[in-house]
Amino acid sequence: MIVHSGAATGAATRARQQLRVDTPATRRRLARLGRYVDTNLLRGNTFVCRGLCQCKGSIALGDDYREGVMSHVGKRFDLFLGDRPLRIVVVGQESGLPKGPRAREYSRKVSLESRHRQVTQTTGLERRYYADIDHPARNPHMRGTTSALRVLLGLGLCTDFDEEFVHPVNGRPFHLFEAFALVNRLLCSAGPMGTSQGRPTRQMLNNCADHFAATLDILEPNIVILQGAKVAQSTREMFTVTRTHTDHLPEADRQGRRLLLCTFSHPSARGALRWGDSPNSPYMTQVVTPTLQRAIRRL
Known about the structure:
Blueprint: H1 6-18, E1 19-21, H2 23-40, E2 42-43, E3 46-47, H3 52-58, E4 63-66, E5 72-73, E6 79-81, E7 84-86, E8 88-92, H4 112-125, H5 140-152, E9 165-166, E10 174-175, E11 181-184, E12 189-192, H6 202-219, E13 223-227, H7 229-234, E14 240-246, E15 249-254, E16 257-264, H8 282-297
Parallel strand pairs: 8-11, 8-13, 13-16
Antiparallel strand pairs: 1-6, 2-3, 4-12, 5-11, 6-7, 9-10, 14-15, 15-16
Helix pairs in contact: 2-6, 3-6, 5-8
């Protein structure tokens, strides 16, 4: 566990005390997103995306195609930090092939409800930052995501599970995975059989662009974390950059709404770009943390 300085602990406490939740707003967003999914993507156990045949036909010979993993949206997505809205979206490229006893449930045709259960229950509550005698570890992707959320929510950087809970001023405590949305650029994935390696095609990226844009417009985030260079490249046309605060923090416009883009390597990247193994990693302390702190100040 990381030991905090008094100043850092005080700042985290102040941020935590100011957080307020708007659960009715989140329920309305989820209902709207559910209608979009039911009409355009996943209706029951039927994947109804009009681009399915094109995308599936474009993948490399011998690759596996896993269709329809919906987004995770936490039940406390709509937050306020003081009087400022705080809506956090983390963007990855695609969902990898899950492991463990629930792999089949979460590998394809994954509903909004199942995806929420996977992120909050299986990854959030049943796992820990590092494995202990009773719990397996989160993967580097979700460890990095945990650390990023801790910074944004004022919880302080450490690996203690008991410190992963947000204490809003107007409700009961909740786990930090309820406070964000995880939206992949691609709702389907393609890659070698039995692996988590993603090998998407241009057709997949083109066909999924409208679904990704629609999801952003329903969620209306004002902080967006882009995880990896490929994600930054494939989402470039979704945002109009209006100002650059740092190399990792452009300010952008999306459909007339101002937002802050936090552009990082993927938490599981190799070498010096890796930040999903420890909250003390150089990339986490020198790039991710100061960028997210600047973003919060500029809300």
